Amino acid sequence: MFGYKRVNIAHNERGVKLRYGSFEAVLEPGTHNVFGGQVEVQLCNLAVAEFDHPRVDILIKDSRERLARHFMIVELGEAEAGVVFKNGRLSGVLAPGKRQLYWRGPVEVRVERLDITRELALWRERVARKACTIRRQPPRHMADARTHLRQAAFAGPKRSA
Fold first, then answer.
1. Which of 17, 74, 100, 142 is the most exposed place for a label (fewest CB within 10 A)?
2. Residues forming beta bridges with residue 22, ordered by sequence position
3. CB–CB of 49/105 below 8 Å?
């Protein structure tokens, strides 16, 4: 049997209308009459910028153009991490390969992408330099630096006799 729902959406909310699990529309503030079977309206507070949904990958694949009007779509590669800023302040970090939707609304969201392969190489270089200063020996190459770091880590503090 076909159903009828009346949905009230507040000024600080949006409604995501799904029919049979597929994205149909974003409902703006106001009163909406929703007809039909298997219709779900998920109310979302815009103060929470992230849109979490168990089928976000399918929603992006099927309805990218319609979603892009209301959401900022972030898709990171396997070698990228994302640093999330909300209203200019650091908010969190996104893991490599992550897909995330952020509402376009009162919270200004910015995601900076970092190439973790480059960052990891810089980190290894810094660790190698630090290992050499611990042993007070210049490294001949990266393999020597790793050996020095391992020796310094397992040597422990020096004891006086």
1. 142
2. 19
3. yes
